[in-house]
Every structure is written in C-alpha cells, then in structure tokens.
Amino acid sequence: MDWMAFRRSFSRRTFLRSSAVAAMGAALPKFSLAAGDTIKIGFLAPLTGPVAAWGAPGLDGCRIWAERVNAEGGIKLADGNYQVEFVAYDDEYDPAKARTGATKLIREDGVSFVMMLGGDTWPGAQPVAERTGMLFSTLLPSDLSPDTTTLIAPSEVHPIYVVTGVDWLAQNRPELSTAVMCAQDDSLGLPSVATYLAAFEAAGIEMQGEPLLFDPSTTDFAPIVTRLLSTNPDIVCLDTCYSDYVHPICEQLFQQGFKGQIISATADFYDQLIAKTSKEFMEGFIFQFPDFDDPALNADNINFPDANGFYDEYSKRHPGQWGAVSWEYAAIMDLWKAAAEKAGTVEPEAVLAAMQEDGKGRHAFGEAVWWGEELFGINNALVGDWPVVMIEDGKAVIKEFRSIPDWYDKHSDLLIKHMEAYGQMWSQRS
Amino acid sequence: MIELLAQTGLNAIYGASYISLVAVGLVLIFGVMGVVNFAHGELFMAGAYVVVALYAERFVPFFIAVAAGLIFVGLLGLLMERSLFRPLRDNPLGGLVASIGFLMILQSLAVMGFGVRMEHIPPVTQEVIEFSDRVRLPVARLYVILAAVVMLSLLSYFLKRTRFGWALRASAQDPQAAALQGISVNATAKIAMFIGAGFAGLAGALSAPLVSVTPHMGHSIIVTAFIVIIVGGIGSLEGAVLASVIYAVVHTFVTTFYDGVLADITGLALMLLVLIVKPTGLFGTANRA
To answer: Cβ–Cβ of A220/B210 closer than 8 Å?
Structure first.
C-alpha cells in the first residue's frame, strides 16, 4: 500500500467527518429487526405518584394485549412474525424523568414505538422525539403541534371528548341551566377547562363564575366545595380532576348536601365513590369512560376486539382496578400493529404513513378521521365518536356515542375562543 | 351570604383543629429539645396510615385505630428522640438534618408498605349535623374538633398542674438550670417527644377518612405548621393554638372567596408580615426566637 497516497486521501478532515457520521449512525435508533427479535414497545407514563391512575392500569391492559397478540402469532411484518413486549419506564409525571425515560427506551432498550400519557411530561420527551424521529403517542391531543410530526393522539382525545357529555346532558336534561367547575391548575386541567367552558356555552348552560383552579397539593376540599355550592348550581363539573381529587370532592359534595348533577371527565374506582357516599347520590353521575363489559361495545362499529373478554380478563387479574386508561394504550397498540403490518416494517415514518392513509382510521369506538389542524396545527389526532357514560344503579352504563367532529363543525368558534383565553392553542404554547 | 359565612367558619374550625394539634406538637418538641423536627409532617402521615392499616384494611373499630395511631406515632417519636436527637443534643443543626433523613425513611416505608396511590378509606360515619340546608358539619369532622379541644385542654392541665408538666416547662425555659434541680433532661425529652409526635399522629389518624392519604401528605401540613409556629411564636404553645386559628380562618376564607393558590400566598404573606413586624411571633419571647 502506498502509505503517502493513503495519507493524502485520508486527511484529518475526512477522518473527523467519517467519525461524526459513524457516531450519528450509532446514536440514531435502529428500526430494523433481525430474525428472532422481539418488537419492543416503550411505555413511558406515570406508574407511581398522584397521576399513576392514568398510567399503571394502561400498562396492565397492554400486557394482556401482548399476550393475546403473541398467542395469535405475534405481529406479522414483511420479513416474518415477531413477538411483542412492553418496556416500561415510570416518569412519575415529571418532564425531566420523561426525557430520561425516552432516551433510555430508545437508545438502550431499542423500542420501535413509545406510548406516553403526555401533558406535563411531553415537553420533556419532545426533544428526544424530534432528535430521533421516533413515533410517540399521547393520550392528550393538546400536546400536538406542527413541531413534532411523529407525535400522534390516536386513542383518547382529551379534552375534546368532554363536549359529548355536556351535549348529551343539555339534550336529555334541559332543565339544568347553571354550572360551576373546579380543576387542578396544571396542563391536564387547563385545556379541559377551556373545552368544558365551550361545551357549556354551546349548550346554553350558564357558568356561575370563573372555574375554580386549585393547587395540586390541596388535601382538604371542603372550602373549595363550599365555594362551588355557594351559588346553588344545577351542575358541578369536576373537569379532568385526578382520581385523587374526584373522590374527596365528591365526598364533600355529598356531605355538604349537594343534590344536583355531577359531570366529570373520569370517575375511576366509582364503586369506592359509591361506598363513600351512596348509590342514590351517585345516580346519574356523568363521565366519559366506560367499563368494557358494557354490551354497547359489542356493536359492529366498535374496533376494540373482544372488549367484554378484555374487561373480564383485566378484572380477573386486577380486581377493582379498572380505570379510564385500562384499555386506551391497548387500543393504540391495535392501531400501531395494523399499521406496522400494513407497512411491513416498524420504521416510524412508514408506520405513521400507513396509519394515516386516506386521512381515516379505525378508532376503538368506530371509524374516525385524522383531525386537529385548526386546534393543534397538525392532523395527528384520531377523532370520531366518544361514549357518554352514566352511573345507573351503581354501574357505569354507556348512554350514547356522540360525534366529536359533528360538535366541532357547529361550535369550533367557541372552542377556539376559550382555548385562546386559557393560552391552550398550539401557537400559544412555548 | 350568612350561610356561606357560617359554612366557611365551620370549615375553618375543622382546619384550625388539626393544624393546632400538629403545630402544638412541633412547638413542644422545639421548646423542650431545641430541635426543629422536619419529620413532623411524616408523623402526621404515619398516624393516617395506622388508620389505613387497622381501620380500612383490618376493620378494627375506628377509635381504637385512632388510639393505636396516637400510641404508635408517640413511640416513633421516642425512637427519634433516642436515636436521632439525643446523640445530637449539642448540635441542633445536626438534629434538623437527621430529621430530614428520617422524613425520607418514613415516606419510603409508606411507599413500600402501601404504594403511592391514594388510600381509599371507608367513611367513619355519614351522619351530618344540619344547622340549615347549606350549613352542615359532618360528624367525622366534629370528631377532629372535639379531639383537638380535649387534647389541648389536657395538655394545658398537664403542663400547668402536674410535676411532669412543670419539669417540661422548666426544661424548656432553661435546660441547664432544670438539670441542676434534678430534672432529667432525657426524661423530659422523651415525654415531650412522645406527646408532640403523638399529637401529630392523632391529627393524622383522625383526618385520614377526610383527606387524601398518600405517602407525601405530610409535605403540606409541615409547611403549614412552620408558618403557624412562626406566626404564633416559636416555643409558645398558646401562640401555636392562636396562630392555627388565625391561619385556618384566613386560608379557608380566602380559598372560599378567591382561590386556594391565593390562600397559600396569603398564608406565607402573613408569616412574612409577622417576621417583619414582630420577629418573635405573636406570643414568642426574644430568648426563644
């Protein structure tokens, strides 16, 4: 070998350039799978802490989903079948931990897709998503923005779905004309406040005062409930209060003699709520998350396979733990699996393209559209019908499915107005 | 408006009750031992978890569970005195730091034993005293109020009319002089610690069915307790009780008529105001400041 010729051709600049390219290649996530590999899916959500009720039950549901899929042969890509497993990271609803978790899941664990709760944690993971091009999902479409094209909200459409509950209430209980609302002061509560305000205004229900925002560290809710009841409202709206708040607030409503209508985004562990108050008090409580043993989920338009069976298995393994998110992450996995199989690969861009083909998708509750450019700057939320659930005789029952896009077509101006007032439009987020 | 004021007043009385139990316990410990117990909020939490373990999970009658909470947390206090504060008696800062470490240990033990989710505790009673349609006092809250009145009265009698009480007050005034008079510093420290911790545990146990029981529930109560003892005067039991009432009234009324965040700010502002105007607190004296 001509050593001098080699030295001439391989300059220091060439060496540095080559090294940088090699390093970048090593740093980027690998989306190709070798034969025999297991597809790993990242589960980045609060598994502990006050928001754990919206993370941990979802992981339990995912594990049941994985067993079912693996028993049926796994995920079928172009080059063969792959088993699937979940790799969990507890972000404790903390953005710094979410960032660490996202990095670990992608770089060390080699996941092909990351599911998150979102909200306060999304800003922590967002730089990782943008740098790696990894496909992320969030339960909160309010996280979406044009900045991150690989973030999707294909299951829960918080907070937009809450309009269905108010819409149903206005139609079925027209005698209710006034409402008050409370919420924790954080990124889960605020967009929901704006949406409920729009929904109440669209329904012609008068808000008696500004929504009462409380500090997330509040433990005694008596003063808050006293304030809520001071104007004698027909409706008390609990917005998207965490389960840890819904329970003491409802107890206080019961103890302070409220006899009106309660509406809330969630009612996790409502059986315990009934035990703490009474069946009569909780009768008619409206929220948005069904038990999956509901017969309405056997209808042909429902895209969640064997919903009743899933609920039975979940309840057998985790008695009394069924909550709002027990099915949601599994529903996202149904969509991801279908898209990966269609694309023949787990490569994020290809999966996303397959998922969004024709602008439509198979949401758990029926056919839906990829939607959201006006609110979120990007059509990455899968939006269609959403159930209105009521507690009747101690059991959650789906009263009706209502269309979110139909509501939006009629009242988009109100929603945008209130979102802007609370600084929740995508263009207002820092 | 009258009914709103009355209901808010009842809410404030309940708030003052459990805050005063916690704050008086903290003052007693500081007064006798000269150490700031940062783990005091976790003692409150420990009392709540005794009720979770006995009443909610094992169906022990509620008041027996509460009594067990008082005794268990009192014993925890004795453990703290013997293992943390006594060896560091000449090093108050060391005692403070050690209490922070104990705080983390208690939180971790609660997480390990019970998890981090909020505990769901069956109601003690659903009876409500109705003064009017909009003015109601749940009997479960009345228990807290009555316990605070009874226990604080007993403490006052104990401190003013019993030899052990005199010994405690002597140790709080001048530990060296008390020792010269034959009063055992260790004995008075143990009594103060048992009572102080026991009061926090009692407050937590009684409050457990009424608040969100989590391993981190001690955080907000310790901040409140510090505000109260600064306003009332560090080392003053009467000041702690009065400041508890003032704080609870201010916080509850501001929460009801404005919002909870402003109420928190107002409480801190009250503390700052007292520090500026009367740094020793309402009832504090210079040598205890």
So the answer is: yes
Q: Which tokens go with A14? A: 């060439």
Type and span of the H or E element at A76: strand A75-77
B255 touches chain A (CB under 8 A): yes
Distance in Å from the first CA to the final CA of chain A: 57
Contacts of B256 in chain A (CB under 8 A): 223-224, 226-227, 230
Give the rounded percent of residues in chain B with a pLDDT score beyond 70.
Answer: 98
CB contact under 8 A, B123 and A52: no
Any residues with CB less than 8 A from the CB of B269 and at least 6 apart, and which? none
Chosen domain end from A365, A383, A401? A383
| Domain count across chain B | 1
Query: Do residues A248 and A225 lie in contact, with contact meaning Cβ atoms separated by under 8 Å?
Result: no
What does the alpha-carbon distance between residue A269 and residue B120 come to, in Å, rounded to a whole number? 10
Element (H, E) at A235: strand A235-237
Contacts A244 to B, Cβ<8 Å: 117-118, 212, 214
pLDDT tens across A137-178, in order?
Answer: 999 988 999 988 999 999 988 889 999 999 999 999 999 999
Whether residue A251 and residue B212 make contact (CB cut-off 8 A), yes or no, is: no
Could A230 and B4 be called an inter-chain contact, meaning their C-beta atoms sit closer than 8 Å?
yes
Q: What is the pLDDT of residues A313-367, one digit of tens each?
A: 999 999 888 888 999 999 999 999 999 999 999 999 999 999 999 999 999 999 9
Amino acid at B284: G
Contact between residue A388 and residue A402 where contact means Cβ atoms under 8 Å apart: yes
> For residue A32, is it within any domain?
no
Rounded to an integer, what distance in angstroms lies between the CA atom of residue B69 and that of residue B202? Answer: 6
pLDDT band at A219 (very low <50, low <70, confident <90, very high): confident
Q: Is residue A189 part of a domain?
A: yes
Query: pTM for the whole thing?
Result: 0.84
Domain harbouring A75, CATH code: 3.40.50.2300
Q: What is the distance between the terminal CA atoms of chain B, rounded to a whole angstrom?
A: 41
DSSP, res A345:
S
Q: pLDDT per residue over A88-134, tens digit each?
A: 999 999 999 999 999 999 999 999 999 999 989 999 999 999 999 99
What is the token pair recorded at B69?
A: 């909470």
Q: Which of B11, B123, B256 is the closest to A276 by Cβ? A: B123
What would the pLDDT profile of A227-269 be if each residue is shown by its tens digit?
999 999 999 999 999 888 999 999 999 999 999 999 999 998 8
Distance of CA A71 to the CA centre of its chain: 27
Residue with tokens 């800062």: B93
Q: Are residues A66 and A130 in the same domain?
A: yes
| Chain A residues touching B219 at Cβ < 8 A | 217
Q: The tokens 């929904």 sit on which residue?
A: A199
What's the structural domain count of chain A?
Answer: 2
Q: How far apart are CA A102 and CA A130, in angstroms?
A: 11
pLDDT tens-place string over residues B37-66: 999 999 999 999 999 999 999 999 999 999
| DSSP bridge pairs for A86 | A41
Q: What count of other Cβ atoms lies within 10 Å of the Cβ of residue A338?
A: 17
CATH of the domain at B250: 1.10.3470
